[in-house]
Amino acid sequence: MQRFFALIALLVLSIPVGMSIAGCGSNPNDFCTRNGFGFGLKNTDVAAINLGPASTGISLAYGQTGQVNQPTATNCNGGSVSVSNYIYGTTNLNLVDINPGTGAICAGTWNRHSASGIPDFTICTPPSGPGKATVTASASAVTSNPVTVYIHPPITAISIPTQQTCVSQNQTLPAPLTQGTQVFSAGGLIDPSVVGTVTYTPVDSTIVTINNTSNGSTDTGTGTGTGTGTGTGTTPPPSTVNGLATAHLSGSTVINATISGVTSAAGYFYTCAPKSIALSLNGSDGKPTPVTVNANSPQNLTTTIIDSTGATITGLALDYASTEPKQIAVSSAGTITPSFPTTSTITAICQPGTCNNAPINIIGQMGNGLPVSANSVVVNTPGRSSSKLWLASSQSSYFTPVDLTATGTPTPVKLPYTPNSMVLDQAGTNLYFGSYHELMVVSAATNTLSKEDPSVPGVVLAVSPDSSTAVINDQVRRIIYLYTTTTTPASTSGGSPTTTVTVTSTGGLATHAAFSPDGKTLYAVGPTTAAGQATLYVHNTATGWSSYPVSATNPPSTCNLNNNAPIQSGQAAFDPFCSPDVALSIPSVSPFITGSSTTANGFCPNTTVTPPVYYPSATASPIPIATDQITATNDGEHILGATASPAQIEDISVNVPIGACPAANTGLQYQAGSGTASGDYAINTTALDTSKVSPTEITGVVSSPASTTSFVTYNASSGNGQLPVYTTASGFGAQGTLNYVQLSTGAIAPITGAFSPDDSMFFVGTSGDDLLHFIDVPSLTDTQTVDPKLIDQNGNRVPIQFIAVQPRTTT
Fold first, then answer.
1. Rounded-to-10 torsion of CA 215, 221, 224, 227
2. pTM value?
């Protein structure tokens, strides 16, 4: 017996010693040592199981199936532990059944122990009503956190509270979207306590960002609304609040709400729209004295954007544009870079598509979805530059390049076909010649033919400001083409640049076309009926093609548009100067169209109808003055026109609206007035002296880059070469002065003309002598002539009808 007690005592005394040895300097049994003990749980044992989605729970409609996330097991140190098998359980088998082996959830009850070979856990029978229960995962005698499963009727719609006021940039809605969110089934509103957590997603994330619960607390604040998730705990930090919406860029967007696998367009979010955009350069807008910026000395515009609440906005994608982009360019960031002497007007527009976007069905609400224009800034780059010119005629298969820095006689260049039009792109890279055989593209640098494309026959009407798109009208088949050339640079790994041509079209007959300064909108007009009724065709990069009838008529209705060269017997010669004509006001882009009365279409859409009407009539009735040809001065203060009968010049003073369009707008922008209000216009007419000028047709009104001087060109059966020049007067509604430039002997009528970019010279082609005349603008004198040597198919000389000019250095 003594030996037995001695053995027991020895064992008792030896246990601490053995344990201390095991825990000193080594852990051969891999015990968890986080607390400094050498016994208890081992590092390979499961200490905790995490089951998700813990924060959001799972939302299921009656009979719908789901799945918990894959559980993760950790040891007492938080390290990962491998578990071969989990067992899943639920607190209510009749409401939320779960496959104990896989974690597959049934909103109702699973089929268990099914007969006839039907696999178990494949049929989910809906429960008798809504509710919620929790599910867990277990392993190694450890149970996970509970995950709430919400059971409810099938969802048919989700709605969020209607926003009462817009939210300024970087501000948040006063309450999260969860407060007031309603979820509906076919039977009506679903009890929010059995719905679960809604996820919110904006269609346009540049307008708003929305927090969604993904981890951490599920509390959405202490709100008392009827929304889903009205937690009663302490208010969490804003960054974790579910449904918290923060405004970013101006505009409105659809908010999609998702729950139980159902996504619904739940409502809209509105970030406050711009109310005004103010441009300045060195503290000035350049009126009446332009801001001077020397060549090759970039300057940055100062742009201040204020929203409808008076808050400042940043980061909007404005469309900056220059009326003389080759000479004075402006970047997308508002940096002005002059390259050649001239005067240019710089504008900026916040235009839907890239700025202040809105779904079409809510355009105008809270000011979203409407364009907003800035004031214009007038910039002058002083100095003199030389010019390169190209001269052509629809009666000759030749064109003549003229370089004013070169010596010698200009040499005509033969084209494959007689052109009916010639347009130089803004970059000064390509000359586009139209014909009814093919489009001919000539390199402006080498004066050689670079491309022939018979797929787009017709008249070239315009080229976009970025030089990528030519507008061509097949007046025989009545098709308007947009001919876009895209060049992809060579890759860094080698290879050559690639050029791709894309052609889109619409039906229509057009005589003139003009692009908005930003190049996003094309306006083209043409006579639709024999009576001279016209149609306005509009192509916008965001909205595509649309067309609008023009009420006024355009003389003469017998003008020959179809140029089938060579001219067939008995067919009248093609006339490249047919009406109607179109001009765009600056800075708000409103097209003014010629006719028996002058019509104007609006910059602001008509939002009083659904869907909104873009480019509606901008006046209650047409402006009561006839125009045959028309132009807009770059300073935005005048629309100038001219008519052959009566022979006169029309000066429409305009106070062009700027800023935001009215939210509820019928489209009306202009009315006769004193100029004290935005949108006022006033009319002055000045009769041409018929003893000096007796036009049979007005061929153009050409305004100088500086907006002070305009020349009227025309056709006449006889005359002694008088060129009308109109000088605008300062002040709204003030009448300008009319003078005449006597062209050198032999000229009958000035047919076409163009200003030199530095505003010092006006080049005019004349009938009678078929020469190019150089008019010195300051002195209004004819100083020089050049013979372009343009001849028809019979070798007879023909007058210049097309002039293209680009600047070049004088060295």
1. -30
2. 0.85
